[in-house]
């Protein structure tokens, strides 16, 4: 089916009456509909929740969709670390879920096995204030036959900010969490001396390690690649970033080299660490705990942006989850209609609210959700989409940057130097060598 015939097939009667044969991206922003195929049933794979409200409202939205359209949606939940390989498997064998909620550059690994979502992305951007820059970069293909088209639909930014114990930070001499890397190191040393060490993952823990490491890498002026996708990680700036992290890691609690995705959550709630990089899930769990000691943690914690390095401006990396529709689906219209439905304000706002700050919107109009102001501890997560950079900064988002992230090159570089397996210079050189395998041309 050609793009033109597909667009005619998926536009609803209201859209056709108003827009005639116009392509969906040119139609009035309130009229786009996709007509599900008769008998359509969908399978959706997503990551396993860290905030119960997220999953509860997401499933409620799916039930609402089924009631309105008759399209059943079967959901499977996977661990963060399992999503990427299962996306690749489904794409390669041409079977499995119709829709997947993956992370970051996941769609770029399998771009030729995905449906074009440009009409839908244009519609949503036009209706809801436009997409923030970095989520948009993640959604659009930069190479191949889909170049310039949307292959992923950024659904939410799962912000990774500093979670910290307020009273312990004050005991260490800081009224608020420091905003610079220099003061952050001073605080970390003071916290460790007071018996309240920080804890930041130096392991292959998706979202908990690569986020804070990239922030400190870029904050020192280092980059994996330049604007022309030339590998430039082997630089004095990278060595300076590694040396900083080695000093910072001296204050960490033992065991961070083997942490999983829940290790820092547990350590924080148990009072073993004073600060870590994480989503808002720790706060959510503490608030909803039946243990008075854990609920007390919620009262004595807050959130802050990761500190700014010598470059003088925010250099944050956050997890971004985005939806993709596999081309093997038998029900492309139903799949697109489900995604459109989930992004409409009537469903999206309740989902963000139920997520209690865990999911912030890549569409600008949704920043006015009351969830960000009804609790001041939520507010730091609101603008993660506006502040964040992309993992392939300052080059393109694509197959190469996806490969580097999946290969844990930046994480391994820091971890090897901190563990004493390599000097900072050797670790930077090794990262350069590994990165060039992905950026060969």
Word description of this protein:
- This protein is α/β, with parallel strands linked by helices and 441 residues long.
- The protein folds into 2 domains: 34-155 and 318-379, D-Maltodextrin-Binding Protein, domain 2; 161-317 and 407-438, Periplasmic binding protein-like II (D-Maltodextrin-Binding Protein, domain 2, 3-Layer(aba) Sandwich), CATH 3.40.190.
- It is 44% helix and 10% strand.
- The chain has helices spanning 3-10, 13-19, 52-69, 80-93, 106-109, 118-127, 133-139, 166-171, 181-193, 210-219, 236-249, 263-269, 281-287, 292-299, 332-343, 345-354, 384-387, 399-406, 409-418, 424-438; strands spanning 41-47, 72-78, 99-103, 153-158, 161-165, 275-278, 301-304, 319-325.
- Strands 2-1-3-8-4 form a 5-stranded mixed β-sheet, with helices on both faces. Strands 6-5-7 form a 3-stranded antiparallel β-sheet.
- Helix 3 packs antiparallel against helix 16.
- The longest helix has 18 residues, at 52-69.
- It is globular, with a radius of gyration of 22 Å.
- Mean pLDDT is 91; it is low at 1-28.
């Amino acid at each position: 089916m050609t793009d033109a015939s597909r667009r005619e097939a998926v536009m609803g009667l209201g859209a056709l009456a108003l827009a005639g044969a116009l392509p969906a991206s040119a139609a009035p922003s309130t009229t786009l509909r996709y007509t599900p195929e008769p008998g359509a049933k969908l399978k959706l794979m997503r990551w396993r929740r860290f905030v119960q409200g997220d999953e509860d409202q997401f499933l409620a939205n799916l039930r609402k969709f089924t009631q309105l359209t008759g399209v059943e949606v079967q959901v499977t939940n996977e661990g963060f670390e399992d999503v990427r390989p299962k996306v690749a498997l489904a794409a390669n064998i041409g079977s499995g879920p119709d829709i997947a909620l993956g992370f970051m550059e996941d769609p770029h690994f399998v771009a030729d096995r995905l449906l074009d979502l440009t009409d839908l992305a244009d519609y949503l951007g036009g209706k809801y204030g436009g997409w923030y820059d970095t989520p948009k970069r993640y959604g659009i293909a930069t190479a191949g036959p889909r170049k310039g088209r949307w292959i992923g639909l950024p659904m939410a930014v799962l912000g990774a900010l500093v979670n910290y114990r307020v009273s312990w930070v004050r005991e260490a001499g800081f009224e608020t969490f420091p905003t610079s890397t220099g003061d952050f190191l001073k605080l970390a040393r003071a916290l460790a001396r007071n018996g309240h060490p920080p804890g930041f993952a130096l392991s292959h823990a998706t979202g908990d390690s690569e986020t804070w490491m990239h922030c400190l890498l870029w904050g020192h002026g280092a980059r994996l690649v330049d604007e022309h996708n030339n590998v430039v990680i082997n630089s004095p700036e990278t060595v300076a970033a590694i040396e900083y992290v080695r000093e910072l890691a001296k204050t960490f609690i033992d065991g961070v080299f083997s942490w999983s995705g829940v290790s820092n959550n547990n350590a924080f709630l148990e009072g073993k660490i004073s600060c870590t990089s994480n989503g808002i899930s720790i706060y959510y769990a503490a608030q909803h705990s039946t243990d008075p000691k854990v609920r007390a943690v919620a009262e004595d914690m807050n959130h802050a942006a990761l500190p700014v390095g010598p470059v003088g401006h925010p250099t944050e990396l956050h997890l971004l989850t985005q939806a993709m529709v596999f081309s093997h689906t038998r029900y492309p219209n139903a799949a697109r209609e489900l995604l459109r439905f989930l992004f409409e304000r009537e469903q999206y706002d309740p989902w963000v609210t139920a997520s209690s700050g865990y999911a912030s919107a890549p569409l600008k109009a949704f920043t006015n959700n009351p969830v960000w102001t009804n609790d001041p501890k939520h507010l730091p997560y609101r603008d993660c989409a506006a502040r964040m950079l992309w993992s392939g900064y300052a080059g393109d988002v694509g197959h190469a940057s996806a490969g580097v992230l999946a290969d844990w090159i930046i994480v391994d570089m820091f971890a090897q130097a901190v563990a004493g397996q390599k000097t900072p210079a050797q670790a930077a050189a090794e990262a350069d060598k590994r990165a060039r395998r992905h950026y060969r041309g």
